[in-house]
Each structure stands twice: as C-alpha cells, then as structure tokens.
Amino acid sequence: MNDIQIDPRGPRFGAFFQLAFSVSALLVGADAGGVVIMAVLLALFIPGAIVGPQATVQSWVFKTAVRPRLAPPKETESFRPPRFAQQMGLGFSILAVGSGLLGWDAGFYVFTGFVTFASFLNSVFDLCLGCEIYLLFKRATTRTAA
To answer: What confidence score (pLDDT) does residue 145 get?
Structure first.
C-alpha cells in the first residue's frame, strides 16, 4: 500500500484551530461551556484520528482557502505521524471532556492543557509532539537488517 503524502503545512495550520478551541475551553473553565468547547474539538479530531489529518475540517479550510495562495510545498510527508498526533489529541480531548462531565475540574484543566501545549508547539514552532512520539515508537520497534 502506498503511503499517502500530505503538505506538512496543513497539520500546522490545523493546530491553530486546535489551539484556539483549547485556549477558549481553558478560559471558559471546567463548567458546561468549557466541556462543550472541548467536545467540539474532540469531534474535530475524530476524522484525523481515523483517516488522517487530510480528512479534517481544518484540512479542508487549508486546501481551499490557504494552500492556493502559497507556493507548492518543498517536500511532503507521510500522513501517519500526524494521524498518530490526531489520535493523541483525541485521547486527551476524551479525557478532558470525561473529567469535565464527572466534575473533576483538575483533570479537565490538565488534559485540556496537554492539548493546548501540544497545539501551541505545533502551530507556533512547527514541533509536532505526537509526530515525534510516533517516530520514537517506530524506531524502537523497527528491526534493522543485519
């Protein structure tokens, strides 16, 4: 199976959306409003976690409104590391929403904070923590030819 290649600027653009939602949730707080914001973010993560970042709403906005105004990417990347990052974002969002629903405010803030921190690093510094973790796992579990 061929590996789907994506424009690496797309997931970075998507991280701005994630950052906006997670910061908004932190500012609103661990009440119903913050939980709803994180639930919307959770829903935005689902297509990226299942298919890859190329299937997200954020990717559609990037492809239709932003990418046509940019030069072609100098290189592309596999969708697999960003998909893993989306899976991690989905997991932390589920934990944040669950914590909020259960009234565990500290858990809501911690898990939303993880999403915020990772989204900030990706959107501002082009450092995808989930991608780096994926690559570490891949290196640790791949055998080299002798």
So the answer is: 65
Checking if the pLDDT of 1 tops 70, the result is no
Check if the beta carbon of residue 69 is closer than 8 Å to that of residue 95.
no
> Does 33 map to a domain?
yes
CA atoms of 129 and 15, how far apart (whole Å): 12
Q: Count CB-CB contacts under 10 A for residue 62.
A: 24
- Residue at 55 is within a domain: yes
Beta-bridged to residue 5, according to DSSP, are 78
Query: Rg of the chain's alpha carbons, rounded to an integer?
Result: 16
Q: What is the extent of the structural domain holding 22?
A: 5-68+78-141
Q: Whole-model pTM above 0.85?
A: yes
Find the Cα–Cα–Cα–Cα dihedral 144, 142, 115, 117, rounded to 10°.
Answer: -20
